[in-house]
Protein 1
Amino acid sequence: MSSGESRPPNSICLLYAMNTDSIPRPKVRKQEYLRSDALRTLQLPPAEILRGRAGLLEEALASEDRQSVQRICNDIAGIIAEEFAIAVPPVTVLGVRPHRVSGGVCVYEKFGDYNFQTSQIRLWMRTALLQKVTSYGTLLSTLCHELCHHVDVVKLGFPNTFHTRGFYERAGLLYHHIRNTPVRPLIWVEQDDGTYRINWALTMGGQRAASKKNHQMRRG
Ligand SMILES: [Zn+2]
């Protein structure tokens, strides 16, 4: 599948860099972008089976058991794929996140990606600099993000699976559904170029929470 002129073959996903992609100019791509942006709901599988797997995922991660984490992530991918009657995207869980350091500071860190050609999802379960196992919430959120790319491409008719407000909100719905936590409405701020970024202060309900999130972003 063509990745388009302005997108890499793999979708690179930085969890906390929740800005929407630039709006493409070509008509067909722009139409896809706007349809994705407008779609704020997602069909969700029954909660019980997913939440059972999520509990196992949290335990496996706490045990730093990479193979079990990978197996459970594949189970969750299978449940999502069954719900949408689509092919199951294989999930591989790897170690330390690919990253780039400049001047002693981590300036880039990859949490996960989705391959347009093979539907392969890759997740990394160890942080870049400290090489510690990532938090359960971060890993699950990344898995949901990549699964939504797959659903976009093979089910929803969004072959470029742009990061739109709708995309992030669909991924958020899936995440909170699996984790059994209340959906947090994302508060978007429009930028000069028509893209959006999340206002974490408002989204998290207070400046204190926003500061914590910003700290996480810098830490990578
Ligand atoms: Zn992405």
Protein 2
Amino acid sequence: MITCAADNCPSTQDTRIDGNLITLFPFPEDDQRKNQWLRNCDLLLSDDEPLYLCELHFEESYFTESKDLKPNAIPTIFDKKEGL
Ligand SMILES: [Zn+2]
């Protein structure tokens, strides 16, 4: 089972949005970009298992027409639950 690594995000590989399976993206191989993703997610680097983020954390402009992530994509959309 692949799950989204973002805090408070319930997405898994079986999650559907409007009837379509959600897309989960593996963290980048490139260390610099991977660290940026981790920072944005408030996550610590884990060597144990591969991490994934679901499409809900990326702005529309980071997707290509075929719904792939652009090479410069970084996750910026998180439910921080501010004020709770
Ligand atoms: Zn997610």
